[in-house]
Design a protein that fits this description.
Blueprint (H helix, E strand, L loop, with lengths): L15 E5 L5 H13 L15 E5 L10 H4 L1 E5 L6 E5 H7 L1 H12 L5 H7 L1 E3 L13 E3 L2
Parallel strand pairs: 1-2, 1-6, 2-5
Antiparallel strand pairs: 3-4
Helix pairs in contact: 1-4, 3-4
Length: 143
């Protein structure tokens, strides 16, 4: 039996999808998006190639979190210098940069290698209900 290895798909063959995040749970939504961006939902998936699709997420401000995470969940950044640890609550980050919440969750689910940056470039996050990618004829997905 012969082992077939898939080849890199051209950029024109990648599909575009639109997902409405209104009322969706953060973790469940981000796992679905991460599998689509990394190409794990495709038949020709190979872990050493970036064969994922484009995903447009609208209404990112309307993402729901369960439990007490709105006030308890913290996003931390550190510059490396003493006393420069910055902590931001989820509720404050939702008001300032609502796209950053979903971007952080999806980025943590992707492989930690050279392919991650290309995968994250195919993620398009939009605050409102309209987006500027109509010319790509994206397919609407309901989760």
């Amino acid at each position: 039996m012969k082992t077939l290895t898939p080849t890199q798909i051209p950029l024109t063959d990648r599909k575009w999808f639109v997902i409405d995040a209104q009322g969706q749970t953060l973790g469940r939504l981000s796992t679905k998006i991460a599998t689509m961006i990394s190409g794990k939902n495709r038949v020709d998936f190979s872990p050493h190639m970036d064969n994922g699709d484009y995903v447009i997420v609208i209404n990112t401000k309307e993402i729901v979190v369960t439990g007490n995470k709105e006030e308890a969940k913290l996003y931390r950044t550190h510059s490396g210098h003493m006393g420069h640890l910055k902590e931001v609550k989820l509720s404050k980050l939702r008001d300032e940069k609502p796209n950053k919440i979903l971007e952080h969750a999806i980025s943590g689910m992707l492989p930690k290698n050279r392919l991650r940056q290309g995968m994250m470039l195919r993620l398009k996050l939009v605050d409102g209900t309209t987006h500027s990618y109509e010319s790509q004829n994206p397919t609407v997905i309901t989760l």
